[in-house]
Amino acid sequence: MSLVDTLNGDLKAAMKARDKQSLSVIRMLKSALMNEQINAGHDLTDEEAVSVVSRELKQRKESLSEFESANRQDLVDGVKAEIAIVEKYMPKQLSADEVEAIVKETIQQVGATNKGDFGKVMGAVMPKLKGQADGKLINQTVKSLLN
């Protein structure tokens, strides 16, 4: 079942349950997917759809950190609830150990030896881990392994 079909089913369930928070977030995700589909000019592949959801999740996490630094607990709670809903539509996230193993394997494949090869490693590892791990975690792992 595609992500859009899952969202449609969950949208109906949220409407029936009168769950305003879920309904709002699901509508936002559907809107973002529809906008991306219009911009692309074709039906989105699963990979493109995950990319859109990932982007929405990243925006919410950035908002969360901003609200926390501004001591806006009223907004923090709402964003945390949104993040929990959006995460349901993301693929299973890899652990730090799994990311490290994939990065080590990629470093060996591209023959990287020092910090200067950072871009080469990131270019090779990001397509492998797209949507499965946070970009910051990947970046930090690559930096630590190349040092």
UniProtKB/TrEMBL annotation:
It comes from the Bacteria. It holds the Pfam family YqeY. GO terms for molecular function: carbon-nitrogen ligase activity, with glutamine as amido-N-donor. Signal peptide: none annotated. Coiled coil: none annotated. SUPFAM superfamilies: GatB/YqeY motif. This is GatB/YqeY domain-containing protein. It comes from Lactiplantibacillus fabifermentans T30PCM01.
